[in-house]
Design brief:
Layout: E1 4-6, E2 12-19, E3 26-31, E4 34-38, H1 47-60, E5 67-71, E6 77-82, H2 87-99
Parallel strand pairs: 2-4
Antiparallel strand pairs: 1-2, 2-6, 3-4, 5-6
Family: Belongs to the UPF0235 family.
Protein name: UPF0235 protein SAMN02745220_01382
InterPro entries: DUF167 (IPR003746), YggU-like_sf (IPR036591)
Length: about 100
């Protein structure tokens, strides 16, 4: 669970390592204390960032507006802020995907 943290305002922070231009969107596993996410979008004009945010929203069952890029705009290592879910809920959802 090292990829998750609680922000001062109560929202969650998810550390992500992004693999752009993959064959499909998926959570691959854990990479250096970050959640490794593959997305089909290229790392051009923020498209990969938008793809990761959209994929996280879908997986976590929240609206896209509840997922914000906190840091790492041009890096593979990013931090996304998530509102509307508890740490236990997010951890459970991600661990169930990783177990499959």
């Amino acid at each position: 669970m090292s990829y998750l943290a609680i922000n001062r305002d109560g929202s969650l922070l998810i550390r992500v390592y992004v693999q752009p231009k993959a064959s499909r969107n998926s959570i691959i596993g854990i990479h250096d204390d970050a959640l490794k996410i593959a997305v089909t979008s290229p790392p051009v004009d923020g498209k990969a960032n938008q793809a990761v945010a959209g994929y996280l929203a879908k997986v976590l069952g929240v609206a896209k507006r509840d997922i914000n890029l906190s840091s790492g705009q041009t890096s593979r290592r990013k931090v996304f802020q998530v509102s509307g879910k508890t740490m236990e809920e997010v951890h459970g959802l991600i661990e169930s995907i990783l177990a499959d």
